[in-house]
Amino acid sequence: MMIILFIYGACLGSWLTAMADRYATGTSPLYPASHCEICQTPLAYWQLVPVVSYLVLRGRCHYCQQRIPPTTLVLEISCGIVLTTLTLATLRPLLWLGLWTFAALCDARTQTFPGWLVWLAWPLTVWALPWPTIILATSGLLGIQLLWRHWPTPLIGDGDLELILAYAITRGSTATAQWLLVASTLALWRARKQKRLAFLPYLVASAVGWWLIRR
């Protein structure tokens, strides 16, 4: 069963990567068929097998030999591993992680992501919380979205703050501090090479890491 779950998770990771690429290029999620983003050549079925195809192709397009980003392989393997933890009890948090993973992929490519993802993930965030906490947290979420629009030079994205709020109200202060420490360390290491970077991917990578450690 774990092997089957890993295969499904790798397929999900491949699909999330493709959808994020299409979000970045503004193309339809339904058509055209999967193709190389550089030479636009449609991909054969054997080039679409998660993990295996990347290794067989040695990380390059079969037609134009352009390099395929290694994040594709990393995401397929990571999603496969994460999905092996699937049970009825973990279904909700895994759906939550999946939505924020897609947001992080979009953010990594364009430093934006679809706003509806926050509201789709929000019921999964507050599902088991008491009503006073839900009302207070939702007010905080709305406050972030309203205030960020009038913030002339924001130092952090509203999506980052929304994920931090969601994590804090479900995991508590200690777990949130540990999560932020890892994410910030990863981001600072990368920031040596970039003046401006998307923080959301590091927050999600840290969340996935802590999820696996705590399983």
From TrEMBL:
Pfam family, one: A24_N_bact
Lineage top rank: taxon: Bacteria
Record's keyword annotation contains Acyltransferase: no
A biological process term (GO) from this entry: signal peptide processing
Keyword field: Membrane, Transmembrane, Transmembrane helix
UniProt GO cellular component terms: plasma membrane
Transmembrane feature ranges: 73-96, 116-142, 197-213
GO molecular function: aspartic-type endopeptidase activity
Residue ranges annotated for the Prepilin peptidase A24 N-terminal domain, each copy included: 7-88
InterPro entries in the record: Prepilin_pept_A24_N, Prepilin_peptidase/N-MTase
Descriptive protein name: Prepilin peptidase
